[in-house]
Design a protein that fits this description.
223 residues; globular
Length: 223
């Protein structure tokens, strides 16, 4: 990992926040709904995930026990808009089973487990990788964990802050060394990076002219 000489994470954060404002992410009514969304959003457009969550809400399927009790075929129909519905249905019910058996379906009980130990438990759940686990820790449980996704590595890489081929944990560790360890900061920063990635820092043909970071040293190279 190599920090840039001219640009810091604090500069990027301030630029994005001034231009885009607070993102108020993750949009969910309950912590469990957020966790469901984190699993459904894997390889999916968020608008499609919202449709799936709305369908689950209509059948009162947004509690761990209700979701676990749903016939798999019914669950799959509800979450079909999010894609990979058979795989995700299995993952959601497996996660719900773990949540109920381990913590009685209570995020308050979950919160009592130190986040590093809880992260290992989450990673042991089928279909929960580092990004999903860290999203749950940050957005559902307000733990100071920096989430790394494709937008993060693209923006940081283009601004010469990291090697874009670096592993997830290396990017995460480096970012957490550069920033104050505050969940609210990590929450807002990640959401701002996602917003900037979607609006400006496209994988191909990025809109640097209108990007709040466009005048900072960068490259548009695609890797």
């Amino acid at each position: 990992m190599r920090p840039g000489k001219k640009t810091s994470l604090q500069v990027i954060y301030r630029r994005l926040f001034r231009a885009l404002g607070p993102q108020r992410w993750w949009p969910a009514k309950t912590p469990f709904e957020m966790m469901v969304g984190a699993i459904l959003t894997q390889a999916a457009n968020w608008r499609n995930v919202e449709q799936a969550i709305a369908r689950l809400g209509q059948v009162e399927g947004l509690t761990p026990r209700r979701l676990l009790a749903m016939p798999r075929s019914h669950l799959e129909r509800c979450i079909r808009p999010a894609g990979y519905f058979r795989q995700k249905g299995k993952r959601l019910q497996g996660f719900s089973r773990w949540f109920v058996e381990r913590y009685g379906g209570s995020t308050a009980r979950m919160f009592r487990t130190p986040w590093r130990a809880l992260r290992e438990e989450l990673l042991a759940c089928e279909g929960v990788g580092p990004e999903t686990a860290d999203s749950i820790l940050l957005y559902a449980l307000a733990q100071p964990v920096f989430v790394v996704d494709a937008y993060t590595t693209r923006i940081f890489g283009r601004h010469h802050l990291i090697d874009r081929r670096a592993a997830y944990h290396d990017v995460q560790r480096w970012a957490m060394q550069q920033l104050p360890k505050r969940a609210t900061l990590y929450n807002e920063f990640h959401a701002l990076l996602v917003a900037a990635g979607k609006r400006f820092c496209h994988r191909r043909s990025p809109d640097c002219e209108h990007c709040p970071l466009g005048d900072l040293p960068h490259t548009t190279e695609v890797r």
